Amino acid sequence: MANYQNEIKVADELKTQHGEGWHNITPEYVARMRLQNRFKTGLDIAKYTAAIMRKDMDEYDADHAKYTQSLGCWHGFIAQQKMISIKKHQKNTAKRYIYLSGWMVAGLRSKFGPLPDQSMHEKTTVPELIEEIYTFLRQADARELDLLFTALDEANRSGDSAKAKEIQNQIDNFETHVVPIIADIDAGFGNAEATYLLAKKMIEAGACCIQIENQVSDEKQCGHQDGKVTVPHTDFLAKISAVRYAFLELGVDDGIIVARTDSLGAGLTKQIAFSSEKGDLGDQYNSFLEGEEVTDLSQIKPGDLIVNTNGKTIKPTRLASNLFQFRKGTGIDRVILDCITSLQNGADLLWIETEKPHVGQIKEMMDKVRAVIPNAKLVYNNSPSFNWTLNFRQQVFDAWKEAGKDVSAYDRAKLMSVDYDESDLAKEADEKIRTFQKDASREAGIFHHLITLPTYHTAALSTDTLAKDYFAEEGMLSYVKNVQRQEIRNGIATVKHQNMAGSDIGDNHKEYFAGEAALKAGGKDNTMNQFS
């Protein structure tokens, strides 16, 4: 953060240069407005946050306890309140990011209304949301600094020089709410050129990190749904290069690319990969195809395709959808090839979409990747699509059973039951959930843990709680008791919603612009004073 007094001096010199015509300009107000608007463009943000992520990646390489985290946010206000909360409770924003989920963009932000996670939403919605999030984070900076400036004025008016010095130190060492966004570009919304154009818009809006997946753009499915279709590596690598070129063109030289593989749950491909020689990347991709070995030309029927791969000539299994099947049981091998290939061709981080949260499963795959690329790092989706309670209770059940421990008191298929909530098995499972991120980062190379849809679920849950009682006998008490009273007692800034929306900043600006003639909203009759 710039030094407050230096900023005043610079503004004063500028005013002097322009002479009497600038007599209405107060250098201290100029300094305040500049400090409140540290980031002038989205590219400023992208460059600043890319450096943060690169530093965090280096620190994780040196110490796997230093992992990073984020929550998915579908609106700028949600992201703003999240970062305000982090600063309040954790005292700093170090290693806390924001995740921008394509699922939530589709489900909550499309002009078509709620849509499934299949790249059906307007692609412009993604950069628009990035810009919106950073607008709200910058406003959080402006608001917090405005409160400090007001406190500084009060300290100076009262002659409390020690307090004034303390506040000025807080201003000079102010930590911004602006943090990295990992932004979901889905499968690129078209060909490599379309991916490049969209990536540019996302970077210009402020994204320092773009996540792209190896599914077919026009067949894209949510990572936790069936029917996923992958593309040959050359197609995917072209899109990784397109994103890199977008970063480089815009001067974000250390931008981060997350290569996501859906191969673990994807049993289909739309294309036979091009191959020019045995063992090349196309041949390796084709070697996973399900098919009948061709030993006689009579096996070939109209419309059949023939592929020579893995030392054999096969007729790939072709479905009525014109898609081709991979052999069952090849998912892990395909994931490992995807990961190594992506890191060798421009990606910085990996994302392996799994069907359950299991440290051992993730470690098995990442150990094989890191045998080739030792510093391979993973972004992992701590997904709400997993039934975390059931998964971990079953993991504990299986571990106990394998160790010879008596599990006769438990029904593995019904471990979700509330009847087990206070059991020793449930308590051990909850402890494993609590330490999952720490354990997986230490053992399985996970640099970043994110939850894609947490604020989608919390918004629904809190709204249900309010609506259930407000429209019943509780009436207004449901809001007062469960919302406003909790805001006051927990120091939630939104209790002064006028201030949060910028009313006090606006009042101060009015004074900057019009002096004593300013008509302010924050006088003694403002009801927000009830929350002082």
TrEMBL record:
Can also use Mn(2+) ion. The lineage of its organism: Bacteria, Pseudomonadati, Pseudomonadota, Betaproteobacteria, Neisseriales. NCBIfam families: PRK06498.1 (NF005074). GO terms for biological process: carboxylic acid metabolic process. It comes from the Bacteria. It comes from Neisseria zalophi. Mg(2+) binds at D184. This is Isocitrate lyase. InterPro entries: ICL/PEPM, Isocitrate_lyase, Pyrv/PenolPyrv_kinase-like_dom, Pyrv_kinase-like_dom_sf. The active site is at C222. The keyword Kinase does not apply. GO terms for molecular function: isocitrate lyase activity; metal ion binding. Keywords: Lyase, Magnesium, Metal-binding. The keyword Magnesium applies. It holds the Pfam family ICL. Its cofactor is Mg(2+). It catalyses: D-threo-isocitrate = glyoxylate + succinate.
